[in-house]
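Researcher: Before we compare anything, I want clean individual predictions. No alignment, no superposition, just each chain on its own. First chain goes here; please echo the sequence and then give the structure tokens.
Model: Echoing the first chain and its structure:
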Amino acid sequence: MQLTKLLPTVILCAVTQMGISQDNNDTNIATHPLNVSIPEVALIDIYDANTGFEAADINFNMADATATGTNSEAGLYDFTALGYTDLWLNYTSVTGAGGSGYDVTRQIDVQMEAGSTFPANFDLRITPEAPVVVANGGTVDSAGTVTAGGVALGTTTAIGTNANLVSSIESVYTGDEAQGVRITYALEQNGNFADYQAGLYSATLRYTLSDL
């Protein structure tokens, strides 16, 4: 009696075990799918090598150039006596190939934001140098091409208007801190000095790595 009751259970367990142990189609090759998803990336910051931090307030005080130095003589007023260098644009860009539906290239634009103030008939000249990229972070081509001679904001490029600083950026990461595009600021006269008025002017510079 007990053996008869146990027999169906033993047979059922054996059939179940056989059903899940093998698919009977194995060969000397085994495969399975693997998917990798790479999103587009567009990141930028500005490192100030003078302070060792991301760029903050930068002040041009013409009193520093007129009370002493090259402009202390009557009849002299050289704006290039003041400048600021060792700013670095760090950026990471991941683009797609042609026809992929992703951005193929990017660019870095800069402007004085709407609402900024700046002396009349003068420009802020922003001069970029060729990109410096960490080992294996990109190529000369993928890091982009800087605008020769830089851009001028103020009179040449009105407040609230973009000027292109770096173009043709592809997949690249420059590295942090003193890597990427080194830029220099300088003041330039662009018009009659008669419109140059005393006062405190405040502008916000905005750099944009395009992500269309």
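Researcher: Okay. Second chain, same rules.
Model: Second chain and its structure:
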Amino acid sequence: MGANFHPIHLSVCEVNYNESTKGVEIALKVFFDDLEEGVVLNGGPQLHLFTDKEEVKSDEWILKYLQEKLLLKINSKDVTLNWVGKETDEKRDIQSLWIYLEVPNVKKVKDLEIKNTILCDVHQDQRNMLHLKCNGKKVSWLFDIEKISETIHW
């Protein structure tokens, strides 16, 4: 397993509806090794994130993976996640990265359905914590291999 081994298999996702920009903003924190393994398991190449050997299309491969594993329906309609970027803090955290996504042009959120199976194909004990801020309400959910979806109505 090497230097990147970690005994906890957890992702943290923050989903915020920004009324001023009319967009849903998503920030996702995952472990490097798990994400890279998930991409490979789903037909992608080795990514070698944040190294000299990083795959040229790593952002596209990560987005493709997340578009299959983090599904959102807003007002009963499937929406597409758009890539914003990724970053890591090599000085403080050498095992994980933040990924930023968005869903633009959302005038109003009446209901939101989330299906989160991020990295459940990599680890049977994967847990995915999700914090949602929308329409003045804050809720948190914990997804795993048995609980993969949640819906909220306003």
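Researcher: What stands out in the second chain?
Model: The helical segments are 32-41, 58-69. Additionally, DSSP finds two helices and ten strands in the chain.
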